Amino acid sequence: MADQTNVSSDLIWEICRPNNAYLVKRKSGGGCQFSKDPLNLTNKHSRKYAGFVNTKAVGVLPAEKGGVTMITKKTKHQNRPAANRHEVTFAGNKSGPRVYRGIVNYSAKQNYRADLRREVVARASAIRESSKPKKDTPERKMRGAKARNVASTEET
Fold first, then answer.
1. Using alpha carbons only, what angle is made at residue 13 by residues 107 and 89, rounded to the nearest 5 degrees?
2. Cβ 119 vs Cβ 112: under 8 Å
């Protein structure tokens, strides 16, 4: 098997672009193409966001108790899938801005894909928002003539 470091990311993308395990094609909506890659932040099938192609890739997954796990790809061990990921978990009991600041600081200190920082924070925000329990909708209050009629029948 050829060493992946000997092959450029552009060549890998050109070979894998039409068909790969993460590609999801939809005929509705003008033939949109999406990606199921865990290291793809926007789920768009494009070279910029493809985690399996880029030597540096970032992914965000949900963690326990409303937390977020940030996954980064190591450039050292490209041919060792078990060893080429680094995971950092941010607890769910911290406030949102504190978690997002931690994500940005971690990626900045590691010199890691500055072009994806906004997408990482957006993905983490969406995951945290979706993990919150939904509030019940309050009962609608009657207004106008209906409310007056109900109030008058309750008084008598």
1. 25
2. no
| Alpha-carbon gap, residue 39 to 136, rounded angstroms | 34
3-state SS, residue 86: strand
Residue 1's pLDDT band (cuts 50, 70, 90)? very low
Q: In sequence order, which residues have a C-beta less than 8 Å from that of residue 67 and are 6 or more positions away? A: 89, 90, 91, 92
Kindly report the pTM of this predicted structure. 0.75
Per the DSSP assignment, residues forming a β-bridge with 62 are 68
CB crowding 116-126: b at 16 or more within 10 Å, else e = bbebbbebbbe
d(CA 70, CA 39): 10
Strand partners of residue 70: 60, 88
User: How do residues 64-104 score in pLDDT, each as one tens digit?
Assistant: 888 899 998 888 877 787 888 888 898 878 888 888 899 88
Coil/strand/helix, residue 15: helix
> Phi and psi (nearest 5°) for 26?
-125, 130
- H-helix or E-strand containing 62? strand 58-62
